[in-house]
């Protein structure tokens, strides 16, 4: 079945692609029930209720209610006295301060952490920080690694308090039901934080778009020829890509066998890694160009956005997404290897041309 896209339909696809790109990288918006994204300051105001917070921000402040989890990286994470987090808090921040109620766990890597005398935490606390002061109620266990730890007079720990610190102070009035244990292995092993998947996906998307823009701007004719090669000879380019992907590491090992070859092998490994990244971007760009060509569009920049964003979305599909991205890598890497070979051969026969190869010249007549 052959689909035909009208002008309105094609413009709609462009709008959707651009919207997906913007939503993955710019300021997060408090949707109906959640806050997700990147922003200077994210505040859940008193009287406001959201389901979760998952963000990069200058500061994350909870004065209202978050029924689920709070996760993010920020300069400051603060649960105010009126604030309530029904789930857990997981974050990396310069300062973490809990004055309100947290129903789940607190896991943080931070410069300073304070659990004040009016705070309550229903789960466990796992913190790695420069300085930590705990003076509130914690129902679970506490594991803290820091330079300075203070267990205040109002501290009420329902479980065990395990710590590692250069300077530890415990007020005699503090209550620790499970006992206090010094553990020198804690520092560096508590308070770890993993960036949310949308952050790493957005970063990868931006990096690929930036690399693609650089390649298209610096090598327009080369890029257009490469895209045309993928369209005309997909099986050949994919096969060459597979041979390159397998043969490259073998060649590097052979070079490294001798001591004199080790420096060359190291440089070769760096170059090979860069070639794989370039191959991924070129492969996605070439597929995007082919799709747009079928829709009657001739725009290399739109092809780049369509290809990179499209494959980023496809990569979210379990198993199949990874297979498709790998296929784009083989196409791009193979086309890159073939174009570099041809460019090297032709370099001595005629000087390089500054004229940009068009899609018509690279792909031929689409109606043929």
UniProtKB/TrEMBL annotation:
Domain DUF8173: 194-341
Name of the protein this chain belongs to: Polymer-forming cytoskeletal protein
Transmembrane segments: 205-228, 240-264, 270-292, 301-317, 323-340
UniProt keyword DNA damage, yes or no: no
Keywords: Membrane, Plasmid, Transmembrane, Transmembrane helix
Keyword Transmembrane: yes
InterPro entries named among the record's database cross-references: DUF8173
Superkingdom to which the source organism belongs: Archaea
Chain segments carrying region Disordered: 346-368
């Amino acid at each position: 079945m052959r689909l035909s896209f009208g002008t309105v339909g094609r413009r709609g696809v462009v709008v959707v692609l651009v919207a997906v790109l913007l939503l993955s990288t710019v300021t997060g918006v408090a949707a109906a029930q959640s806050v997700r994204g990147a922003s200077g300051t994210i505040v859940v105001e008193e009287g406001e209720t959201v389901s979760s917070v998952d963000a990069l921000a200058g500061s994350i402040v909870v004065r209202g209610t978050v029924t689920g989890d709070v996760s993010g990286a920020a300069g400051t994470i603060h649960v105010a006295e009126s604030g309530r987090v029904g789930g857990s808090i997981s974050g990396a921040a310069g300062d973490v301060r809990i004055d309100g109620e947290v129903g789940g766990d607190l896991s943080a890597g931070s410069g300073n952490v304070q659990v004040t005398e009016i705070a309550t935490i229903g789960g466990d606390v796992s913190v790695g920080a420069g300085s930590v002061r705990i003076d509130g109620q914690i129902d679970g266990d506490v594991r803290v690694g820091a330079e300075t730890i203070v267990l205040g007079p109002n501290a009420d720990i329902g479980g065990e308090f395990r710590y590692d610190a250069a300077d530890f102070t415990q007020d005699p009035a503090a209550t620790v039901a499970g006992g206090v244990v010094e553990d020198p292995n804690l520092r560096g092993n508590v308070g770890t934080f993993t960036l949310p998947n949308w952050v790493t996906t957005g970063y990868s998307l931006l990096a690929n778009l930036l690399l693609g823009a650089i390649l298209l701007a610096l090598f327009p004719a080369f890029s257009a020829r490469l895209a045309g090669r993928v369209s005309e000879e997909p099986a050949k380019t994919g096969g060459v890509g597979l041979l390159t992907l397998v043969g490259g590491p073998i060649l590097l090992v052979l070079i490294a066998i001798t001591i004199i070859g080790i420096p060359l092998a190291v440089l070769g490994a760096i170059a090979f890694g860069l070639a794989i990244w370039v191959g991924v971007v070129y492969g996605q760009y070439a597929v995007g160009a082919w799709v747009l060509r079928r829709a009657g569009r001739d725009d290399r920049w739109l092809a780049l956005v369509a290809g990179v964003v499209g494959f980023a979305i496809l990569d979210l599909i379990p198993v199949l997404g990874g297979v498709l991205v790998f296929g784009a890598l083989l196409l791009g890497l193979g086309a890159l290897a073939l174009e570099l070979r041809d460019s090297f051969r032709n370099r001595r026969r005629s000087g390089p041309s500054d004229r940009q190869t068009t899609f018509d010249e690279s792909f031929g007549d689409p109606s043929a």
